[in-house]
Amino acid sequence: MIYQESLDFLKDLAQNNNREWFLANKERYDKARENVIDFVGQLLAILRKVDPGIEETLDPKKCVMRIYRDIRFRKDKTPYKNNFGVSIPSSGSKSGGVEYYLQIQPGNSFIGGGYWMPEAPHLKKIRQEIDYNAADLRKIIDEKDFIKLFGDFKQQEQLKSVPREYDAENENIDLLKLKSFVGWHKITDKEITGKNAVQQIADACSKIYPLNVFLKNALA
């Protein structure tokens, strides 16, 4: 489970997002980060039984993203994120692309997966796969448990216009216009600090797994 102390650290950090406070509370940060790394290690042990694409050698430390923000080109100059982000690639060890993503943040934790905002070459391949095999994708996203957890997949951000490779009358245009291909489910503070948190998140990932398989096949 994620300890309440870890959430408390993030809550205090959000209210004191400056270098002086962070350095004075570095020990609290280290303990919270170790808690998250341990949690991810337990999660990986279960997920590998669900998704064989997750490498056996994947280090949970490398899944936990840096808390330091890149502020070079941002108006918001606060130096730290107010959450722990966890990226678990569905294949290989490089974060980004087809993955499972966990955000740990007081009042705003969630588990998600799929492919968020693919770059043009990958987006083209995914659209081609949808054009050829949309029925396979619809079978995944229209499944009752998928909808219950993640809602309507088609309600993600879409292009305002039709992709130039396709016709507006294409029967799958609602899917072809999508900019991202993800499902996400909010997790309450009570849930993520509960004894069953790891299994609950793993169960949600098992519902994302078929989507990740579809996307990886598109990119193969």
Which fold name fills CATH's third level, the topology?
Answer: BirA Bifunctional Protein, domain 2
- The CATH architecture comes to 2-Layer Sandwich
- Compute the separation of the termini in Å: 36 Å
What low-confidence regions span 5 or more consecutive residues with pLDDT below 50?
Answer: none
The backbone outline, from C-alpha atoms, is globular
* Order of adjacent strands in the largest pleated sheet: 1-2-3-4
Query: How many beta-strand runs?
Result: 4
Q: How would you sum up the major sheet?
A: 4 strands, antiparallel
- Count of the domains: 1
Chart the SSEs and their pairings:
Blueprint: H1 4-15, H2 19-24, H3 26-50, H4 60-63, E1 84-89, E2 99-104, E3 109-115, H5 120-141, H6 144-150, H7 173-176, E4 181-187, H8 189-192, H9 197-219
Antiparallel strand pairs: 1-2, 2-3, 3-4
Helix pairs in contact: 1-3, 3-9, 5-9
Entry summary:
49% of the residues lie in helices and 12% in strands.
Q: What do you see in this structure?
A:
This is TIGR02453 family protein. The chain has 220 residues and is of the alpha+beta class. It has one domain: 2-Layer Sandwich (BirA Bifunctional Protein, domain 2), CATH 3.30.930. Helix content is 49%, strand content 12%. It is built from nine helices and four strands. The protein has a four-stranded antiparallel β-sheet with strand order 1-2-3-4. A hairpin with a 4-residue loop joins strand 2 and strand 3. Helix 1 crosses helix 3, helix 3 packs across helix 9 and helix 5 packs across helix 9. The chain is globular and about 60 Å long.
Question: Main attributes?
Answer:
9 helices; UCP028451; CHP02453; 220 residues; globular; TIGR02453 family protein; alpha+beta; BirA Bifunctional Protein, domain 2; 4-stranded antiparallel sheet
